[in-house]
Amino acid sequence: MLIESGSPVAADTRIGISLTINGHRRDLQVAPWTTLLDLLREHLDLTGTKKGCDHGQCGACTVLVNGTRVNSCLTLAVMKDGAEITTVEGLAGLAGTGSNSLHPIQEAFIEHDAFQCGYCTPGQLCSSVGLINEGHARSRDEIREAMSGNICRCGAYTNIVDAIEDVMSQGGGR
Amino acid sequence: MNRFEYVRAGTVAEAVQAFAGAEGSRFIAGGTNLIDLMKYDVERPGRLVDITRLPLDRIEERDGGLRLGALATNAAVAYDARVQSRYPLLANAILAGASAQLRNAASTGGNLLQRTRCYYFYDTATPCNKREPGSGCSAIGGIARIHAIFGTSAHCIATHPSDMCVALAALEAVVQVSGPKGERSIPIADFHRLPGNTPEQDTNLKPGEIVVAVDLPARDFGSHYTYLKLRDRLSYAFALVSVAAGLELDGDQVKTARLALGGVAHKPWRNRKAEALLQGKPANRESFQAAADLIVAEAKTQGGPQGNAFKVELARRAIVRGLEQAAAGTPQSISDKRIQ
Ligand SMILES: Cc1cc2nc3c(=O)[nH]c(=O)nc-3n(C[C@H](O)[C@H](O)[C@H](O)COP(=O)(O)OP(=O)(O)OC[C@H]3O[C@@H](n4cnc5c(N)ncnc54)[C@H](O)[C@@H]3O)c2cc1C
Ligand code: SF4
Ligand code: FES
Ligand code: FES
Fold first, then answer.
1. C-alpha–C-alpha distance, residues A94 and B153, integer Å
2. Which of A72, A155, B102, B251 is the most buried (most CB within 10 A)?
3. Residue ranges of the 2Fe-2S ferredoxin-type domain (chain A) (predicted)?
């Protein structure tokens, strides 16, 4: 059913929402308790976005909502009705260079060897794009601080900061 | 997560009404605390009232100060040009908390109402008076490293985890709320409460009341301030002890001192006697040590190797260092973690 402002939706109801995910509009029916992360992974097969902790403590689930990085594990899909979501699968599309080429930050991660196992990488990539969009971090220390919401068990931090600095010095690369 | 009803509110009145319409209602804003607690079954709301579409996200000039809408995100407030230039104490406190992603989602109202990070509160297998009134407090005699040293009771020794609220306490912000019985203003000092016999109540907000805004008074302590946060790792961790300090100086004499501590009590901790003691004194280490000694004299610690006795000396030194940073006009950097 569709949502009407002020009217309660019963607990067992599927709610009709529409999201633009990686540039494609999707009309979806979701239970109120479905997180954005579970919607992406379990319902839409967009398994690039990872579930690390499910509690906001690791950043593996980072996606862009209307261009802003957030933890998709701590947001409900119904609350994002109408939003534009970009996941790691959509970063190449953001760059606007066709789906076969990578986003500059993805190129830079490869170039700088900014991952080992890769589990944290989709979150690191989306977070990096968010950081560059925000435009607050300039120095290396500031980049490190602004990326502290993404934990990497392999400890690829130094190279991740290198990759971000590289893209920033090329003028952003959205 | 339990099953719950969902209401999307379009106006404050609609939100207040929807809240009253069911048992166990909760407002939801950023969701970064509530959804976390729902996943642990600590919160089991009967109804979620989604307030994210209310027009409460503005930051506006008001009476020489600023009014922060309850839905202004932590990031929006911290990076607002007016907040950065006039209330850098608040900006720095917010930026010392959580992560960039969390601050992008977290709201001003939700930050005020975030719940304690006491491990036992989160663990439904253990007794906790805050989660289940009357069941006991597992932290007393348990692992109490992160717990309070001021204002505790025999029923709860939890701390309020917010960084933002510590700065708001030093700035003497005023919380604007709306509820079934109309609107009222609550000074920040009276917003959070001590646990006493009813640790299940974190604040003096009445059931069904919604925070609509936070007002920052004109006095901004924008020249002599610091937010010094000490924690187990240098970022993305809650405070063990934090200090929000704001000074007004007359030459090298203290005209006014504001000092609030985080990580040490059930609410941002202020000690008016210590602030009064500083008034008219030279802004030097000796005065600051006297104020710090006065404050920590009231500390009551939890024993054992997993206790929190270390926080007394940590707080004492942090107060002195924080006041020195404020007096010198060299606030703690958010990104360069060295403490000068
Ligand atoms: C891993 C992690 C690390 C963190 N680290 C820090 C840290 O270092 N420092 C720090 O300060 N914080 C930290 N936080 C906490 C974070 O700041 C809070 O989760 C956030 O501020 C809550 O805001 P929200 O809008 O997401 O609240 P929600 O989760 O939406 O709501 C929280 C509570 O407030 C109530 N509520 C929300 N808005 C209103 C309103 N307008 N009126 C009445 N009630 C309302 C809700 O009903 C709920 O009970 C951390 C969180 C996580 C997950
Ligand atoms: S300190 Fe408070 S929150 Fe923690 S276990 Fe005791 S009663 Fe519960
Ligand atoms: S899965 Fe969301 S932060 Fe870890
Ligand atoms: S690359 Fe393995 S966790 Fe980061």
1. 54
2. A72
3. 15-91
- Residue B254: domain span: 224-328
- Mean of per-residue pLDDT scores for chain A: 94
Q: Does A66 touch chain B (CB under 8 A)?
A: no
pLDDT of residue A99: 58
CA distances (Å), B62 to each of B17, B58, B152, B181, in order? Answer: 28, 12, 36, 25
User: What is the tally of structural domains in chain B?
Assistant: 2
- Per-residue confidence at A174, pLDDT binned at 50, 70, 90? very low
Q: Does B336 touch chain A (CB under 8 A)?
A: yes
In a domain, B145, yes or no: no
Asked if the structure places residue B231 within a domain, the reply is yes
Report the atom number in ligand 3 closest to the C-alpha of A57: 3
Pocket flag, ligand 4, residue A154 (CB < 6 Å):
yes
- pLDDT of A132 > 50? The answer is yes
Site to substitute for ligand 3 among A41, A53, A63, A65, most atoms within 8 A of C-beta: A53
The number of the ligand 4 atom at minimal distance from the alpha carbon of A124 is 4
Average pLDDT over residues B287-316: 96
Query: What domains appear along chain A, each with residue ranges and CATH number?
Result: 15-90 (3.10.20.30), 94-169 (1.10.150.120)
Interval B165-195: pLDDT, tens? 999 999 999 999 999 999 999 999 999 999 9
Kindly list the residues from chain A whose CB atom is less than 8 angstroms away from the CB atom of residue B31.
74-76, 79
To the nearest whole number, what is the mean pLDDT of chain B? 97
CA B158 – CA B206 distance, rounded (Å): 21
CB contact set of A112 (below 8 Å; sequence gap of 6+): A159, A160, A162, A163, A166
